[in-house]
Amino acid sequence: QVQFVESGGGSAQPGGSLRLSCAASGFSFSRSVMAWYRQAPGKEREWVATVPKTDDKRNYADSAKGRFTISRDNDKNTVSLQMNNLNPAATGVYFCNALVLGSTIYPWGQGTHVTVSS
What is the pLDDT of residues 69-88, one digit of tens each? Predict the structure, then answer.
């Protein structure tokens, strides 16, 4: 059974940092492209960042470029998102998933909540 357990969310002030983590199980993690998504209040889920199997050529949404860093640990089956210089637009629930040909293929986990406010 595929499972994603996201953690690390919380409250932060603008300019602050948070580090999110996702523990994945039930599929071949090391062979999968992994991604983070965000669902802001009242909006649809949107893509934030992607890390390929070999942890190179990472890709970011424009809103994340220069401030967020995605990484993975294939030994621990985890994918992380380091978020720096946070702004209120980063508020939302963050989810991870695996991608095949650019689309998510597994059921979503519960996500982890991030709130950025002063």
Answer: 999 999 999 999 999 999 99
Residues of the chain with pLDDT under 50: none
- How far apart are the two ends of the chain, measured CA to CA in Å? 40
Angle made by CA atoms 83, 88, 93, in degrees to the nearest 5: 65
Structure tokens at 22: 């996702």
| DSSP E strand stretches across 29-90 | 33-39, 45-51, 59-60, 68-73, 78-83
Return the percent helix, strand and coil in the chain, to nearest 5. Answer: 5, 50, 45
d(CA 23, CA 5): 5
* pLDDT of the residue at 101: 87
